[in-house]
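Bump. Still looking for Small-conductance mechanosensitive channel structure tokens.
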Amino acid sequence: MTSLAFDVTPVLNRFDMASWFNKNLIDLGFQVGTKLLWALAIILITRYAIDLVARFTRRAFNPVEPTLRKFLIQASEILTLVVGIVAFLSALGIQATSLVAVVGAAGLAIGLALQNTLSHFAAGVMLLNQRPFEVGDFIEGPQGVKGVVDAIGIFSTTVVTPDNIKITVPNSNLFSGVLKNTTAMRTRRVDLKIDIGDRPIEPTIILLLSLVQPHPLVLSNPKTTCHVASISPRATILYLRPWCRAEAYEQVQSEILQLVKEALNETNLSSAGEREPIDDPW
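Sorry for the wait, here they are.
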């Protein structure tokens, strides 16, 4: 009778290999799944943290100018997002050190390339913080900048000129030079020099004050003043100084000059037959 021999060693080896593979696959799946779950949790935490940081920053910088406050809120949200991304990569087992180094090098290169832009940004932060002018103010700045402030941004300021042209001025230009805000005090004194020739001083001062004080745009307080500025053999110069609201400055200046010119011409004509003609002081 013939006996059959069956070698089970290869079968056992294959069974052991399959068991080892299944075990390692389960361990790998458990590790990867854990990392994915932790990474997803970090994404959710980052989303919540962005809202929380934005809310906190909004409350902390509530007294700050709205444009600057909005920028600070956005900056805090971006910073929180970057931290979340780094944590997300670390949770997946990706080394974030090299990524941070690359981002830092790129930031340095961008910073060097955008030096002027960064200077405009720094000047914008200082302008928004110190607030030497506000929207609606009339300013006179370096390089002939002159007009009403239309908008104040982080990098530039928009100004509407007296001839209704909108110009954009880099903030560093405004911050680095002398800046005159002609409407900040709400009232202005109009300084006029009047040459009265050889007319008598006291009656002329009374005449000028009687012309200026009733003007509807001239303020009664502070009072209009008129006094002698200089005397020479050929001319007597008077200072005529009415006060008005800042936005009416040019109109008051023009109309007062016209009134004075016409009044002095009339006094010239009325006294032409009584004294020798004098040179027109204008």
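The radius of gyration is 40 Å.

Edit: fixed formatting.
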